[in-house]
Amino acid sequence: MALTKELVVNDCIKLYPKTIGVFTQFKIDSCCGGAVSIEAAAARDGAPIDDLMKALNEAAAR
Questions:
Q1: Per residue in 3-38, pLDDT tens?
Q2: Is 2 part of any domain?
Q3: Is 1 part of any domain?
Q4: Which residues contact 46 (CB under 8 A, 6 or more apart)?
Q5: How far apart are CA 50 and CA 32, in angstroms?
Q6: For the chain, what is the domain count?
Q7: Most buried of the four, 2, 32, 41, 43, by CB within 10 Å?
Q8: How many CB atoms sit inside 10 A of residue 8's CB?
């Protein structure tokens, strides 16, 4: 299953623990700011959504 930008950051990390490193790499606040969608977090923290989603899906597939 491919991850979508609508998935909540905290849920993504729970389902796919290997994605925590990707959020860190893209400077996404996954601790205190993890209760929002990946799309909202990317917009908030200035991460390019397409690059972020590609990296997240690659990490989740490992």
A1: 999 999 999 999 999 999 999 999 998 877 789 999
A2: no
A3: no
A4: 27
A5: 23
A6: 1
A7: 41
A8: 15
